[in-house]
Amino acid sequence: MKVGIIGSTGYAGAEIVRLLYSHPEAEIVWYGSRSYIDKNFASVFGNMFKLVPDVCKGENIKELAETVDVIFTATPQGYCATLVSEEVLSKTKIIDLSADFRIKDVATYEKWYGIEHASPEFIDEAVYGLCEINREAVKNARLIANPGCYPTCSFLSIYPLLKEGVIDRNTIIIDAKSGTSGAGRGAKVNNLYCEVNESIKAYGVAKHRHTPEIEEQLSYVAGDDVLINFTPHLVPMNRGILVTAYATLTKKITEDEVRDIYHKYYDDEFFVRVLDKGVCPETRWVEGSNFADVNAVVDERTGRVIMMGAIDNVVKGAAGQAIQNMNIMFGLAENTGLNFAPLFP
User: Fold this and answer.
1) Is 149 a catalytic residue?
2) Of 21, 59, 145, 268, which cross-links 102 as Cys (Cβ 3.0–4.6 Å)?
3) Is residue 137 part of a domain?
């Protein structure tokens, strides 16, 4: 497969490059970047020195569509929507890592992101690329909306119990924490070392843009509208997301029965690991990998359940899941090019 990347010099784009370097069935032929045109990719990311000799090109998607089998767009919100057209999609497939096609309601997207959608005619066609849930739809898709990092971790943590109806959909609270790479590579004062080191803070309280994405996907599962409280926090580490979600149980159920539900849904999923009883997910055990670790604890005293998950936000939360989607689209084993253990330490 010939691959093109638009936005190859952001964190997610660069991670696609790193992961595809070892992919046996893919070759990157286009490193798109607005900021580093004609510069060697390896001069921007020294980890690829002598591994990637290519120079960065522009972002001419029409020319790119004539050249490659699939395009990854790792771009800011609103940009991919300006590039997509029937002409492009008739020639190649697109996996978009932005939020442009994740939310099916245009008004909701425009409200939360504060921009006008440039190509709403493609929203219905776009497949939400949460591989473990929408695998069959991904197989025949031309346009994939790669899920956000917080929604991926949140959904995988909550999905089995919501699907089985053992939690009250109106009582879900999600507390999430992310490393600073989740904010992107652009220079921002609030993300400077001295601003984040030795500190943790909540942000986007009651208004984070991933809220409607999580609610929409959980609503599909519940068969009715789901409203959540979602509060993200910034943690002074490079990578990782930890989700701790709470919900009221709809019936008396033991922790072993809860764990049986998780095993029912995930035992056949290569990238979702249900941890042993009493073991809480930790970001250090998924770092650098496409794995999602999940577990749950029943609080009998309060009649609630605590659902937990951990992922690497740049891999399973972005680039790795995008490649997992690509593998499904082209009939490859899902773990092709992703079959490696997490990094430690």
Assistant:
1) yes
2) 145
3) no
